[in-house]
Specification:
By secondary structure, this protein is α/β, with parallel strands linked by helices. 47% of the residues lie in helices and 18% in strands. Helix 7 links the parallel strand 4 and strand 5. Helix 6 packs parallel to helix 7 and helix 7 crosses helix 8.
């Protein structure tokens, strides 16, 4: 079909429920789930701290473990120069591994305008790093409610920072995923409220399946419609008790919600990661396969 014929056909496609080349992001997100597996660099925090493992090693490990992507916690980056970032991006590409996300520290519960501007600049700096690596997502933290402030006030400060950072991130094609990570983001209702208040296609929820402290599965389910990344844990917490995570139950929620994206294994238990992660990754791949790994 040549270009002229294609243009003629567009009204007919629309009439029969087809789509034009320009689609709203929300239109593309509907339908059945599409799941990809990944490993999170944080799983190997001890080795990365000791420098017995490098980020290049993580790329090779992703190939060995048959996962599609890497969520790179940046805490142990030697630097953020092109000399480090660009060869890492090339290595990942040549090995068919997507560096789809980086995970950073942040604290957006800042009570003054100057501090909120500083936090926005911090996020923008990491947007630049993500863009150089080809990562379309950054995991961010909301932070803790300052002493003497209310949770509602702190939530407004987080919204203010995220709105400004999202404007910049959107110009670079990078999504910011606000994690349920204690503090202001301890409860799903508050995380959802913040994301909805920001009201940006470049902001969603980085859903950590192990971070809620009670009513975990209901809170996970509440976050699914807004999830832009999922970090899978082996355990959940219920009223102070650690329990094995029901991966099949969580995967069913994601499938029912039509989630499309990555499931990054983030291992935090006691067994050595070098032993546990290969075994758990195999289990995750098998569980995702049963749900229909696209």
């Amino acid at each position: 079909m040549n270009r002229r014929d294609l243009l003629k056909s567009l009204p007919m496609l629309a009439a029969f429920g087809g789509t034009s080349p320009v689609l709203a992001a929300d239109t593309l997100s509907k339908g059945s789930a599409r799941l990809r597996t990944a490993i999170c660099a944080y799983s190997f925090r001890d080795a990365l701290k000791k420098k017995s493992m490098t980020y290049d090693d993580l790329v090779r490990l992703a190939v060995e473990l048959d996962v599609d992507g890497l969520d790179l916690t940046v805490y142990w980056f030697p630097n953020t120069s092109d000399d480090f970032l660009l060869p890492l991006r090339r290595l990942a590409y040549k090995n068919g591994v997507e560096i789809y996300s980086i995970s950073i520290r942040s604290d957006m519960c800042q009570p003054t305008e100057d501090l909120r501007e500083r936090e926005t600049a911090w996020l923008e700096r990491w947007v630049e790093v993500a863009a150089k690596l080809g990562a379309g997502h950054i995991r961010v933290f909301g932070g803790d409610v300052p002493k003497g402030s209310t949770e509602d006030q702190a939530a407004q400060w987080v919204v203010s920072v995220l709105k400004r950072a999202a404007d910049y991130a959107g110009r670079k094609g990078v999504i910011l995923g606000l994690e349920n990570h204690g503090g202001i983001t301890s409860e799903s209702a508050r995380v959802v409220q913040i994301v909805k208040a920001v009201n940006s296609p470049w902001v969603g929820i980085n859903l950590d399946t192990g971070n809620f402290r009670n009513n975990t599965y209901a809170q996970i389910e509440a976050c699914v419609p807004y999830a832009v990344n999922v970090q899978f844990k082996t355990e959940i917490s219920e009223n102070g008790k650690k329990l094995p995570s029901d991966w099949n139950r969580i995967l069913s929620m994601l499938a029912k919600g039509g989630y499309k994206g990555y499931l990054a294994l983030e291992y935090e238990a006691d067994e050595a990661a070098e032993v546990a992660v290969p075994r758990l990754t195999k289990q995750l791949n098998e569980a995702v396969g049963k749900q229909g790994r696209a």
